[in-house]
Amino acid sequence: MAIESQNYSNGSDYWYHSRSNSLPTLAGASVDFESAKTIPAVFACVRVIAETIATLPLDMYSREQDGSKKRYVEHPLHETLHNQANPYQTAVEFRELMTAIALLRGSAFAYIDQPDPARDQYDLIPLHPDLMEVRYFGKYGEVRRYFYGAQKVEMNAGDIFHLRGFDGIGIARVARESMGLTKATEEYSARFFGQGQRPVGFLSVPQNEKRLPMGDAVFERMKGQLKEIYTGPAGQHQIAVLEDGVQWQAMGLSAEDSQLLESRKFQTEEIARWFRVPPHKIGHLDKATYSNIEQQSIEFLTDCIRPWLVRWEQTIRRDLITQPRFYFAEHNVDAILRGDMATRYTAYATAIDKGIMSPNEARAKENWNPRADVWGNAYTRNLNQTTTADAAVATAPSTPRASSHPVIHAAATRLADREKQAVKSMPTGADVTAWATTFYAKHAVIMAEAMALPLEKATAFCDAQRHRLELHGAEKLIEWTEPIAREIELITHTHHVEQHAEKTQ
């Protein structure tokens, strides 16, 4: 269902003029979703959260048969979420806007547009939340309908990307009293320093019986002079010429006025608590130290940012991904957690030494190209570390099955070649899923017989191959002939070793 173009955001006042009513507060200052952003602490919190989430890498992944994941840039959503969300917004701009709206208003909406179905392309068009009405139907409210604009254009759940904040209630609503107090404090401070809300001194006339009363002309002239030079910031440090023996008496600030700065600091901390943002993230460094600032940054990621990342990922899964069993979106938070160079390199060295990471995995985290040698993907293992399979191999007798590695290798190679030739001969335009289901059912039987494997293990391997064919295509599968042969050989060898270990126990 199409949405009128005039409802799209184009950088005009469409986004910057609230359509909702202001929320009154006990402090006397009304707060709405747009005026809340004029409060420095609120704007700083919204900005740091939205920019952090928007700039984190968000990639599409495919679920592999063995439980692993693989970055899948060929997915049509990759371009939308990683680079360009719509014709006028980059992915960062879109995610930043949606997060900011959801923070303040509780919900953010975007129309799922597919301008060119042939290209399998998606555009996400942000919609103004004040123009959106959500209705829930069904016994448990499980059916969603959206009504947009003055004309109440009806849309199904499949038409809308709906990002919800905590309980669907924006912070601008639940924290309006704190924001109202902060706004009132800001307004009072502006009047205090900008307009001289209270007198800074007074004039004293000496008491003398012989002194004649001050004339009206002198009084009005001094009054006008003092008003001119002492009103507003421009009048600071000016010289006043007093007449007729009049003396100037300065007045100090009251204890209440002296606490104005402390009150503003407290309100900044209060707003930060509402957003779960460490104060140092918004420039409030009173309680930040060298020893605790790193821990506060970690808490910022785990307590503030992580819930929003999960909201984004699960909303993408619900509203955008048609095959969630095979594909998913995930943020990369390594950029936030990266320490200094010495700390990172020490961690990499420990992980490689303990066999947790390979050298190429460590290099990938630094955005370096992988090593070309055979050791790039190798995992270190201490010499004193053994497994049940290792022990079985070490003590296994020289039976034909255990010592026939060349035979196993040759049989695995023949199976991989057979699969390769069959995939190459797949008819053009054939239904890949139907063809693969038929072929791999027969191939599993042949594999089980050739490698002396249980049929269930051969079937599990062939199911994984069928999924790879559907996911990556025939050309890619043909390129993998040699790795496929090695995988068959490894499955066979592992099975025989496990069998021998069971017999010797």
Description:
This protein is mainly alpha-helical and 505 residues long. Among the domains are: 200-250; 341-377, no CATH class; 388-504. 49% of the residues lie in helices and 12% in strands. The chain is built from 19 helices and 13 strands. It has a 3-stranded antiparallel beta sheet with strand order 2-1-13. It is elongated, with a radius of gyration of 35 Å.
- Helix tally equals 19
Proportion of residues in helical segments:
40-55%
Structural class: mainly alpha
* Spatial strand order of the main sheet: 2-1-13
Q: Main beta sheet, described?
A: 3 strands, antiparallel
Topology at a glance:
Elements: H1 40-55, E1 58-63, E2 69-71, H2 76-82, E3 84-86, E4 89-90, H3 91-105, E5 107-113, E6 123-127, E7 132-137, E8 143-148, E9 153-156, E10 160-164, H4 171-174, H5 176-195, E11 201-204, H6 216-230, E12 247-250, H7 255-258, H8 260-275, H9 293-319, E13 327-331, H10 334-337, H11 341-353, H12 359-365, H13 388-395, H14 400-403, H15 405-424, H16 432-451, H17 455-472, H18 474-479, H19 481-504
Antiparallel strand pairs: 1-2, 1-13, 3-4, 5-6, 5-10, 7-8, 8-9, 11-12
Helix pairs in contact: 1-3, 1-8, 5-8, 13-19, 15-16, 15-19, 16-17
Distinctive features:
single chain, 13 strands
Question: Could you provide a short overview of the structure?
Answer:
With 505 residues, this protein is mainly α.
